[in-house]
Amino acid sequence: MRRLRALEPLAWTGPAVVLIALVVLWPVVEMIRSSFLKINRRGVEQGFYGFANYDKLFGEKDFADIMVRSVIWVVAVVALTVLISLALAQLFNQRFPGRRVARWALIAPWAASVLMTAIVFKWMLDPEVGVINQIRLKLGLIDALGGAPADQLGDASTAMPWLIFVAVFVSVPFTTYALLAGLATIPADVYEAAKMDGASKLRTYWSITLPLLRPALTVAALINVMNVFNSFPIIWAMTHGQPGYSTATSTILMFILKGSNIGESAAMSVVNFGMVLVLTVIFLKVSRWNKEVA
C-alpha cells in the first residue's frame, strides 16, 4: 500500500510528462537525428551523412551575415518592446479618463493574427497604392509612387526598420500586460514609505518599482527573446527575406533550405535551438533573475 501511495502523484504528473515528451523532447531528438542524415526533397532518408549537412550550412556565403542579423533582430525588437512596454504599463497603471478603453485598444495588435498584421503592413507599404506612401507623397518625402524610393521593402536599409517596427507592434501588448500584472503586486505602503522619506518620482521608480518589477520583467523579456528569435510570419509575409538574404534571419534561412535540402535545414534548426539556449542563458545571467531584491 505504501508503494501504491508513493506512485499516486504519477497519476497527476504522468500525463504532463508524457505530453512534454511527445511535444517537446521527441521533436528535438528527431531534429538532431535528421541533421546527420541525407534526406532527399521528398523526405526519404538515404542514410547517415555525418557532419556533411553542417559543413554545407556553415559554408553558405550568407550564413555569417544571417546569424549576426538574427542576433541584432532579437536585441532590437526585445529592447524596444521592453522600453515601450515599461512606459505604457506605468501609464496604464495610473487612473485617467478613458483608461479602460485605452487598455482594450492595446489588446488589438495582440488579438489579431501576426500573419494578418504583417500582410496589412505590407499593403500599407505597397509602392503603388500603399497608404503610407500616399502620405509620404503628400508630405513631399517622395516625388512619385512606384519608384525605388517608394519601395521601402525592396531595400534592406529601409525594410529592416519596418520589420522591427511591426515585430515591436505585435509584441508590446503582451509585454505591457505582463508588466501591469507585476505592478499590481507592488504594495502601496512601499510607495508611501518612499514618499515620506522624500524620494523623488524618478528615484522611487528606479529604486523601488524596477527592482520589484524584475520577476515580471524577466519572464516577459525571456518569452519575447524566444518568440522573436523564432519569428517567421512577419519577415516571410513582408519580404520573404529578400532582396537576396538581406532581411533573412536564421529561421527564414531554415525554411528556405527545407525546399532544397532537408538535412541542411535540420542542421540549421539545431543551430537555432543552440542559439536560443545561449541567448536565454546570457539574458538570465545579465538580468540576475535569481537574485533577491534587498
UniProtKB/TrEMBL annotation:
Pfam families xref list: BPD_transp_1
Gene3D superfamilies per the UniProt record, alphabetical: MetI-like
Domain ABC transmembrane type-1: 67-283
Compartments, as annotated in UniProt: Cell membrane
Membrane topology note: Multi-pass membrane protein
KW DNA-binding (keyword) present: no
PANTHER family the record matches: ABC TRANSPORTER PERMEASE PROTEIN (PTHR30193)
Protein name: Sugar ABC transporter permease
